[in-house]
Amino acid sequence: MVASASALEAPENPLPATNAPTDGTSALITPCDPWPRPYYLEDGLRRVAPYFFTYETWCKERWRGRKLLDVFESEFRDRPLEYYRACMESGQVVVNGKTVGPDYVLRNGDLVSHTTHRHEPPVSAEPIGVIHEDDDMIVINKPSGIPVHPAGRYNYNCIVEILKAERGLGFLPRPCNRLDRLTSGIMFIAKNAPAAERMGREIFARTVRKEYLARVIGKFPDGEVVCDQPILLISPKLGLNRVRANGKSARTVFKRLAYYPPTGESDEKKQGNGSNVREEQARTREGYSIVRCLPVTGRTHQLRVHLQFLGHPIQNDPIYANQKVWGFDLGVNDADAILNSDEDVISRLSRMGKEEVADAVAYYDEVVDEYHKKKAEKMSGELCEVCNTPLYTDPGQQELSLWLHSLRYEDAGGAWSYVSPLPAWAMPPAGVEGPTQVGGLDDLVGAAGTLDE
C-alpha cells in the first residue's frame, strides 16, 4: 500500500533489528493490508488490533540531493531524530527495498519505505448513519471522533475504511467534503468519479450553503452576529489557528437557537468575592447556548476560532476552550496577541496529551460531567510487548466528541437540500422546553450579504 509522505512518520519505536541486513542487501518489507480489517468493538469503541505495515512514498523533488536522515528530520515531526536513525540502520526505513543507512543521498525515482508495528487509536463505535442514498451518492451523518481519511495515527479507523469494510473491498468511497475528526454531521460520499467531480465543482463554486450547530459557553447575543475577523495559522505542527490582523480573511454568521441557563448556580454567583478568578469562574458557568453557524468562507477551524474570539467558545473544545492554553480569558477579543503571545499558546498546547491531559474548561450538565471525569488519552507508561512502542490510554469523551455539527447542506438555487437530525447535545435538557429543529437559512444568508467581500 502506497501512503503519503506524512505517513512515514508513524508513531512507533524501532522494532528489534533481528536479521535486518546492514550491507545494502534487500530488506524485509511487509506491505500488509489485512482483509477483513482487524476491527473489534469494546467499551463503546471501535478498535483495531495492532498489525505490521509498510508505508511507501516516492522521492519528492525537494528531497533530491539531500541525506535520508536530513529529510526525515525536516519533514516528519512526531518522533525524535534518534528513532529515525535507528530505523535506517536496522532496515525498517529502506530505499528501493534495500538498507542504505541515514547518510544515503536521495535521487529522483527513489522509493522510500518504512515498516512498523502499527497501533491505531480507538474511535467511537457509533454507526455511520445514512441520510440519503442513490446510484451516485451517499449522504451520511458522520459520528464525531472519526477522521475521514487515513492520516497520522489513524489508518483503518477512518470513515473511508469503515465504509469499505461495511460494503466490501471493491467499494471505493470518494468523500466530496471534509469534516474535522471531532466534528459530526453531513458528508457526501460519491460512489463514482463523475459524481465526485460534479459535487466538487458545486462546492468549489460556492453554490452550496452549509450550516453548522455549536454548543457554546454562556448566553450568546440575540439576533444575527457577523464575525469577519481574519484567521492566521500560528503553528502548522499543531494545526493551531487564531484571530490575527495579518491572517486570511474569514466571515461567519451566527444566530442563537436556544439558551439553557445552569441549574443550582445562583447561590454560587451571589457568594462570589469579586476577584477576577471568581468572575471568570462565574462567566464560564453561565449556562450554554445552541448556536447556528453559517460559514461564508472556509478557513481551518473557522467556527471554533470565531466563537472563541466572540467570548463564547465551543463548550467542550479541548483546544479553544482550554484555560491551560489560553488563560482565564480563553482568548476572547485578543486579535493582537497581547494577552497571550503565539509562543506561549503554542508551548502550552504542545504539552497537552503528553505531560498533561487535554481538558476543556466549560460548564457541564451532570450527564456530560460524568463523561468528562474519564481520563483523556495520554501515554500510559506501558510498552508494546512486540515492538516496544509507548502505549496510550483510551481517549476520554472530550477526545472523541466536539459539540460542533454539520447540520445542513443545500443548493443555493433550491435544487436539493439535506438536513440531519439535531445531535443529542443540541436537544433541550430533560424537563426543559426548547427547539428540536431549526428553520430556514434566509436570515443568516441575508446577514452574510450585508457586508462587502
TrEMBL record:
Q: Which reaction does it catalyse?
A: a uridine in RNA = a pseudouridine in RNA
Q: Which intervals carry biased composition (Basic and acidic residues)?
A: 266-283
Polar residues biased stretches: 19-28
- Give the lineage: Eukaryota, Fungi, Dikarya, Ascomycota, Pezizomycotina
Please state what the protein is called.
Pseudouridine synthase
Q: Does the keyword RNA-binding apply?
A: yes
State the UniProt keywords alphabetically. Isomerase, RNA-binding
Give the family per the record.
Belongs to the pseudouridine synthase RluA family.
In the record, biological process GO terms are: enzyme-directed rRNA pseudouridine synthesis
Region Disordered: start and end of each range? Answer: 1-28, 264-283
Task: Name residues in a coiled coil.
Answer: none
Domain Pseudouridine synthase RsuA/RluA-like, residue spans? 136-308
| InterPro entries in alphabetical order | PsdUridine_synth_cat_dom_sf (IPR020103), PsdUridine_synth_RluA-like_CS (IPR006224), PsdUridine_synth_RluC/D (IPR006225), PsdUridine_synth_RsuA/RluA (IPR006145), RluA_PseudoU_synthase (IPR050188)
Q: Which residues form the active site?
A: 180
Function of this protein? Answer: Responsible for synthesis of pseudouridine from uracil.
What the entry lists under CDD domains is as follows: PseudoU_synth_ScRIB2
Q: Give the Enzyme Commission number.
A: 5.4.99.-
**Gene Ontology terms, MF aspect:** pseudouridine synthase activity; RNA binding
Q: Out of the domains of life, which is the source?
A: Eukaryota
The UniProt entry, under PANTHER family, shows: MITOCHONDRIAL RNA PSEUDOURIDINE SYNTHASE (PTHR21600), PSEUDOURIDYLATE SYNTHASE RPUSD2 (PTHR21600:SF40)
